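Forgive a beginner's question, but would it be possible to get any protein sequence you like and the tokens describing how it folds?
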Amino acid sequence: HRHGVFQAVRVEAGGFGIIGAQHRATRAGINHRANGRAAYHTPGMLTAVDAAVYGEPRRDFDYPQLIETMAAYATPHIEKGGRLGHVTRHMVGLFHGLAGARRWRQILSTDATRPGAGAEVLKAAFAAVDLDGAAEQAA
């Protein structure tokens, strides 16, 4: 029943369960767009997509690699006249709920918006995040 699946998507929106609910909704022929905001604020949820859709084993997200990739992206952007804040404004909520997330947001909201800010600011902000603490909480 289409209405029932839509209710599941609405109830699970904003959490990791949204992937499975949306996959079920797609199979039922329902067009859904509820994942945008949840994925923007908690992008780690996207690591569950391949597991939910294709049945592949779930992999941990490689945050250090993400920071290196974004730093490498930001450097030529800045060299062409862009600002670091143009890149990092979409990353502010990346570590929501983790130890050091507040400091991460502070650095990106202040230092990354200053003229002349480079990729080193992104790396300094990442150094404030405690990924080991998150792993201990999950265990």
